[in-house]
Write a structure and sequence with these properties.
By secondary structure, the protein is α/β, with parallel strands linked by helices. It has nine helices and six strands. The N and C termini lie far apart (45 Å).
Length: 243
Amino acid sequence: MGKFKDLLKGIRDIIYPPLCFSCRNKLSAGYTDSFICPGCWAKIKKNTPPFCRRCGRQLKEYRARGNICPSCIRRPPVFDRAFSPCSYEGVLKELIKAFKYGNNDFLGPLLSSLMVEFIRDYELPLEFIDFIIPVPLHKTRLREREFNQAQILCEHLSHELSIEMVADNLIRSRATRPQADLEGDDRLQNIRGSFSVRRRQDLQGKNILLVDDVLTTGATSSEAAATLKEAGAGIVFVLSLAN
């Protein structure tokens, strides 16, 4: 049976050669299961130190005021700290949009590998984390997309880090406009009061890793963190794929 499947795959690849998801060039042998060619993968911009010690954005230089970016000084986020391995631009931006809006959930393992690599390279202090929680979608948005991209990332992180994922406690209880359509204070107003929890008792004193695909202004993650903390959670870290 295995040889027959390999034969069918070989015939399919001849008729419909696998293409890089980014540049659309033919993938060479050994990369057909990765969906992206080595050249495009190398173009993904990684965030490097120094990082803002609140939102995790890459700083141009070390800052005298405790390595906190101007945005976090003006409006401190509710979450305790955020981390993002990559910059939301170029090849990665294309991949995230394809993953998020193109019904391409199979890109989840590939994208989550960037997060796992970052965690291990920088030895992020996650040993005290009790649960991994994805930023939820409202049920109407979930019906449109058919899956929650943050939950797909969470599933692979949970497996790699051996930390339990809880995907049904934090919920998006109010539908909102897409944050991508808004800026600044409008994002804060749009997302305010849009989350709730189902089982407060499960969060008492628990430390949470909140996961999303992109952290832009941090308004969504901050509001979700506020809801978790109000319900009794302890430390809330945020991990996004890009910022």
